[in-house]
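Fig. S4 source data, part A: sequence.
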Amino acid sequence: MQICLCPVTALALDAELADSRVQLADALGVEIGEWPPDGGEWDRAAVEFFRQRVDDDATRTWGPAYVIADNRLVGSAGFFGPPDEEREVEIGYSVCRSERRRGIATSAVAELIALAIAGGCASIRARTTADNVGSIAVLERNRFSESTRATGDDGVINVEFRRSLH
């Protein structure tokens, strides 16, 4: 699947905060159907968080991006900040329900891996829940391995995956 990771901009984030799909479509120059991805972490709090930081160099390099495919906004993917002292970054991704099972998440994670390698990272981590078989398959296709598993206070089993870039 051919995708493009389009880094967030102030204009796009302002459109999201205004709940305007028309403005968001104009800001990105794409069509928008379902948005934001159902069940993902790209919610109003995330948009507000990144809007406050969008002009920061670290956010531009190590922040979120919109996932574009076939001239449509189909998801979000990106980093949760710059590499830590061990040169590890954390990634996240979410694909609109109507666009799932087309290889979009797998391609987005592959792009994030390439960016992390280019940025000198040593490893990448990602988190999901044990019942999210689609996300686990995406990570496994991109050569991540399960590193930890823990049950949260809410009873949900959280799984962390890692991939070495060496």
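Fig. S4 source data, part B ends here. The mean pLDDT is 94.
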